[in-house]
């Protein structure tokens, strides 16, 4: 239904809704990248798109042809430049209720076994690095270690991370209720952030793993006994075992995609 005309251009209600949605998306993307080099690149891409639309509207063939060649590659450039942010949003989509319905498992038993193992390892002044999948198959990590395919248990985790065990140096990969592998090698975080150089190898590896896959990484420091978790490229130090259990319950249960996307935008705006 046509509402009005601007010259020879007809404007309908759908056109207005379309413009509002696109404007909102571009505005939120700009807020996410504001203050970074990426914001300047994003602004340049936006100007190219606007110029291309103007050229097409006024039938400027030569200018339109030039800008169309540029806009042909802007999607690829966007994916390359903003790959970390896109990956995080895709991970959020993978955590929705619909997606998690097909990947549901009883997490309570696994959580209890993990927290009990962390408690005893902490008392023994031993460290641990545990990657718990939230639905993904962590094949790339599993292949770097020793396959176990054993049910998660406190006793087995304690045995693996015993300093005299040949499997203690590396990460344990847990998927559903199964320890898939031990002594796995995790990628160190490649994102430059304040304080990361002060962290130990376990913490950097935990951050690196959480940046690459949909998983929560539990880190127990052998030196200090501190417990922390890495999730979605963020490191959080915990006050104790009760908070660890709450975090695991929250992260291994279904989540609201709207709230998680909101958290990503708010966190990145603060940065």
Plain-language structure description:
The chain is built from twelve helices and nine strands. The chain is α+β, with helices and mostly antiparallel strands and 271 residues long. The chain folds into two domains: 2-81; 105-253, YojJ-like (1 (3-Layer(aba) Sandwich). A seven-stranded mixed β-sheet has the order 4-6-5-3-7-8-9. Strands 1-2 form a two-stranded antiparallel sheet. The longest helix has 21 residues, at 13-33.
Number of domains: 2
- Give the N-to-C terminal Cα separation: 44 Å
Give the tally of β-strands. 9
CATH architecture of the largest domain: 3-Layer(aba) Sandwich
Mean pLDDT: 77
Features:
271 residues; alpha+beta; elongated; YojJ-like (1
Produce the secondary structure layout.
Elements: E1 2-6, E2 9-12, H1 13-33, H2 37-57, H3 61-72, H4 74-81, H5 83-93, H6 97-101, H7 107-123, E3 128-133, H8 139-142, E4 146-151, H9 154-160, E5 171-175, E6 178-184, H10 201-212, E7 215-220, E8 227-231, E9 234-238, H11 241-252, H12 257-270
Parallel strand pairs: 3-5
Antiparallel strand pairs: 1-2, 3-7, 4-6, 5-6, 7-8, 8-9
Helix pairs in contact: 1-2, 1-12, 2-3, 5-12, 7-9, 7-11
């Amino acid at each position: 239904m046509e509402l009005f005309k601007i010259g020879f251009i007809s404007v309908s209600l759908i056109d207005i809704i379309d413009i509002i949605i696109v404007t909102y998306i571009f505005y939120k993307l700009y807020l996410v990248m504001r203050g970074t080099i990426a914001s300047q690149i994003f602004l340049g891409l936006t100007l190219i798109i606007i110029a291309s639309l103007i050229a097409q509207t006024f039938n400027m063939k030569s200018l339109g042809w030039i800008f169309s060649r540029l806009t042909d590659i802007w999607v690829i450039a966007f994916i390359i430049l903003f790959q970390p942010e896109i990956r995080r949003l895709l991970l959020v989509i993978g955590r929705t209720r619909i997606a998690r319905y097909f990947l549901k498992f009883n997490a309570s038993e696994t959580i209890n076994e993990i927290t009990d193992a962390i408690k005893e390892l902490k008392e023994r002044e031993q460290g641990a690095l545990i990657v718990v999948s939230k639905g993904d198959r962590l094949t790339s990590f599993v292949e770097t270690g020793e396959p176990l395919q054993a049910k998660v248990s406190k006793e087995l985790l304690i045995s693996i991370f015993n300093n005299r065990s040949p499997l203690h140096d590396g990460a344990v990969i847990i998927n559903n209720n199964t320890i898939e592998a031990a002594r796995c090698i995790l990628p160190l975080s490649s994102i430059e952030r304040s304080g990361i150089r002060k962290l130990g190898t376990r913490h950097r590896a935990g951050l690196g793993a959480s940046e690459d896959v949909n998983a929560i990484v539990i880190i127990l420091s052998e030196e200090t006994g501190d417990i922390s978790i890495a999730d979605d490229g963020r490191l959080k130090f915990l006050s104790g075992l009760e908070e660890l259990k709450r975090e695991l319950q929250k992260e291994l249960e279904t989540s609201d995609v709207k709230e998680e996307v909101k958290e990503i935008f708010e966190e990145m705006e603060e940065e």
